[in-house]
Amino acid sequence: MTTLTRAPVRSPEGLLRFAAPQQFYPLAGRLAPWFAWAAALLTVVGLYIGFFVAPTDFQQGEVYRVIFIHVPAAWMSMFIYLVMAFWAAVGLVMNTRLSFIMSQALAPTGAMFCFVALWTGAVWGKPTWGTYWVWDARLTSQLLLLFLYFGFIALTRAIEDPRRADRAGAIIALVGAVNVPIIYFSVQWWNTLHQGASVSLTRAPSMASTMLAGMLIMAIAAWMYAIAVALWRVRALILERERHTEWVGEVLAAEAQTQGRAR
Amino acid sequence: MQWESWSAFWQMGGAAPYVWGSYGVTLALIVAELVLVIRRRKDTVNRLLRWRRALGKDVGGSQARMESVE
Amino acid sequence: MLQATDLACLKGDRLLFRGLALTLAPGDLLRVAGPNGVGKTSLLRLLTGLTHPEAGEVSWQGVALRRNRERFHRALLYLGHAAALNDMLSPLENLRFACAAAGDEDVDEERCVQALVRIGLAEQLDLPARVLSQGQRRRVGLARLFLSAQRPLWVLDEPFTALDVNAVAELATTLSDHCAAGGIVVLTTHQEAPFARPPQVLDLGSYAC
Amino acid sequence: MLSAFLAVLRRDLLLSWRGRADLLVTLAFFVIVVCLFPFGVGAETNQLRAIAPGVLWVAALLASLLSLHRLFAQDHADGTLEQLLLSSEPAVLWVAGKIVAFWLTTGLPLVVAAPGLALLFDLEQGALPVLTLSLALGTPILALLGAVGAALTLGVRGGGMLLALLVLPLYVPVLIFGAGAVDAYLGGTGAAAHLLLLGGGLAGALALAPWACAAALRIAME
Questions:
Q1: What phi, psi does C60 have (nearest 5°)?
Q2: Chain A, nearest residue to D213 by Cα
Q3: Residue A258: inside a domain, yes or no?
Q4: Is B2's pLDDT higher than 80?
Q5: How confident is the model at residue C206 (pLDDT cuts 50, 70, 90)?
Q6: Is residue A73, in this structure, part of any structural domain at all?
Q7: Most confident of A253-262, B61-70, D119-128
């Protein structure tokens, strides 16, 4: 016997799934400025230490001061990829939309840091090695990481259905994350075979503690910056995704009012 | 203090183009990213507001029906 | 027994329908009706487990599809909008592949030939599929009905399209027989067909958002 | 259990045979790309000998990318993919069948043709078996990884370019160990380590890629 009925109430599980972005949106809006200010403050402190406290390097002279952005950027670019893959995995397993949005919001910042690491590495290389680019294991895997970022961003942008874009992006992020260590070790292997260990970015162990302090503070600043920007981007993505819900309508109405007042 | 004068600071012991080139590009990229993020948010809000207004009457109607369902 | 509770379907950023529930027991023949774009195909694909609902759940014999995929797919025959024919293969090759890929290991070449002859493609058995007419292509897909009697649940998207009057009548008889034997049929169609007893109708338009 | 695997394998091989002109295009592309290099870098024998492994490997990699976007496209367009996803057999099996058929029709010809082309670069005779073996182990990895990319970009606008962007970075380790195997043999250190690593990579890709590919196909049908 066929029965065709209209369900009276939504299941609680469904409600929960719809609700998560709604609660995160205002939270992200409240948190982001704090992270942004922390980033700005730490950058000022870090750069002060880097430029005015840390001594001149006895081998490289002043050029080494690029380290205060190069190393944090390189760390962030790798770490953000792993965080992206983590959110992708969470999204695939738990089926939560917010996780996919998080991983997509992180990608452009990760790519930016990746490019910064490459650029500063190359610029640093010219006075140190006499050439802008060597096919050093780190630089090369950094370059490939940039391509992985581009692939992820291009794929998630090219697919129009957001559900499919989320999941397809998650798979490529995970495949990439499995490959990042493989790429790194293979490039290192290849590098040692072809050039020997003559050219390496490995820094002297006797790094002055003020140098290290400046670098670490800059790394934390990069962290704060990445979080702030990702949160802001998440907000825009959430609005876009949830546009057919009631609460986005309310948010938009409030935005329209403030815009009107500003004019 | 590491520097004898401000001009010594800007010259960076002869490595000025490399050091300031790195910092300049990084700063430019960060500013560009921030601008893009802020503009993206504005664009999204404006586009969605336009979208709501365009659908205005329809949305209102179906909204009412959805509420009557629940 | 096929059961759906509180289904919501999102396509792109548009909510097609929500709050849809249905229960189909052996012997039921359900016709999904509604204007174009209301989500008839989307509903059928939800019921086959090809897509996942935005909210709600589909279950087969009381177990949710995602926990029961293999058993459910053994019980299901879905014929979609596209005929699943490769133009470079003959109807016979296409049909044999379709059965083997679906997991019907007991279907041999002899039975495929019989099915194709019965549906009126005796002369086209070995021609490449690209020379077939629309109606003939549709028939190759429908030939699987004769080989899938052991699959209780048939989900058919527009099975009557491009068929002539006689073929429509024959197909209606086949579907009615399947239901009489305890099967379940869900289909979409825009045309009336002479079923043995009138199908139940689900008007999707009334669930639209 | 294997019926879906065998059915897909048999059908795809049959389809490739009926459309065999397409296969020759892949092979011709491989040959032509390899032959372009002497024009670009000069025909100095020692130099050609030195770059031969890399050239052959890069050309094989590009050639295997050439027809990759067609791996699932036809089945996607005509509805066969839907039917396969509704099979009661596990999707991993028939996905593996498709990948095997794809490699047999596009990868294997490259493996067979490579030693002949290597002679054009005056590669040492003893290195030919190493080259062949490295390609035989490496090109299946390319097919497996590529299949994941092909499934992800199925039906996406600009899919072909996107596919290249997605999979080429992932191909780099294969290229390194593949070309490296021949270099290592020529350098006298022996190719065993490289070939073992390639073999390990193949085992890993065989274990993981069909799953990822099946998941990507399910996503693509949503």
A1: -120, 125
A2: A171
A3: no
A4: no
A5: confident
A6: yes
A7: D119-128
pLDDT digits 0-9 by tens, D74-116: 999 998 999 999 998 889 999 999 999 999 999 999 999 999 9
Question: Which chain A residues in 133-162 lie under 8 Å from chain D, judged by CB atoms?
Answer: 144, 147-148, 150-151, 154-155, 158-159, 161
**Residues A138-182 pLDDT 10s:** 788 899 999 999 999 999 999 988 888 999 999 999 999 988 888
Nearest to B69 among A6, A62, A112 (CB): A6
Structural domain tally of chain C?
A: 1
Substitution target in A1, A4, A241 with the highest count of C β-carbons within 10 Å is A4
User: pLDDT tens for residues A23-71?
Assistant: 888 888 899 999 999 999 999 999 998 888 888 877 777 888 888 899 9
Domain enclosing residue A156, as ranges: 32-54+64-198+207-240
* C/D interface, count of CB pairs below 8 Å: 78
Nearest to C73 among D79, D80, D88 (CB): D88
Establish if B18 touches chain A: CB-CB under 8 angstroms.
yes
ipTM greater than cut 0.95: no
Q: C74 contacts in D (CB within 8 Å)?
A: 88
Note whether D153 contacts A178, CB cutoff 8 Å: no
In chain A, which residues touch C (CB < 8 A)? 1-7, 10-11, 14, 17-18, 160-163, 241, 243-244
Whichever domain contains C108, its CATH number is: 3.40.50.300
Distance from CA of A263 to the nearest CA of C (A): 31
pTM above 0.90, yes or no: no
Helix spans in chain D (H):
3-18, 20-41, 45-66, 73-78, 80-85, 91-102, 108-120, 127-152, 159-187, 192-221
Higher per-residue pLDDT: C204 or D94: D94
Report how many domains make up chain A. Answer: 1
For residue A26, being part of any structural domain is answered with no
For residue A7, is pLDDT > 70?
Answer: no
Residues of chain C with Cβ-Cβ distance to D7 below 8 Å are: 97, 100-101
pLDDT at A113 over 70: yes
Q: Do D183 and A172 touch (CB under 8 A)?
A: no
Asked if residues A131 and A101 have their Cβ atoms less than 8 Å apart, the reply is: no
- What is the least distance, in Å, from the CA of C81 to any CA of chain B? 30
